[in-house]
């Protein structure tokens, strides 16, 4: 009754089913790993954002690499903004996905070290983006700032190419080592995203808090892949039974037709 399973068509179909089952199971485990990674990352970010602010030099120093545990930690610093060394970071978007710049201003601490402060987003003046844009001035004199600690940007992490030959005072990535060379100063590793004081007239536009990654979606995908893997053998058996039933029905019809033919005289 099931000799048709040895046909070329059914052998290929069975092999495909046998290949799909472990593949889908493995994809489910991959999505579950992604869920666990994203959940752990969300917990780490939430913990950093909720922690009390600490002096910036407690977390960083010249040449230091900011770790994932230090990322988003709230820090404070007292000093003055140095607009003469200010640059803008190209091709950055705001919450409405409008393309513009981030304003990166050196902040000179009381001990002479420099902290890079991302003061927020401003729109591009025109399509060419070759001229230095009009940037609102930061508070003058000594001021205390608060911000979220961030690691230096890299092409590998951000996907942004570090282009050369850019217009004066424009950069693609925030790199404390490169800024230390440009400013000829002792620059603390990483940079901060400004949270206070808030800018006058709302510009530069402060960068919002990072949101949670959608870990639940990966969990749902994992369950989905495992359900698919379970459905494959069920679907295969359904097709086999239907094929067997169709073949049996065709055989019965042929037998009935043979019996109905008149006998030869």
TrEMBL record:
- Where located? Cell membrane; Membrane
One GO term of the cellular component aspect? plasma membrane
Superkingdom of this protein's organism: Bacteria
Q: Does the keyword Transmembrane helix apply?
A: yes
Topology relative to the membrane: Multi-pass membrane protein
List where the protein spans the membrane.
219-239
Keywords of the record, alphabetical order, are: Cell membrane, Membrane, Transmembrane, Transmembrane helix
Q: What is its main location?
A: membrane
Family, as annotated = Belongs to the SURF1 family.
Supply the name of the protein. Answer: SURF1-like protein
Source species? Streptomyces griseoviridis
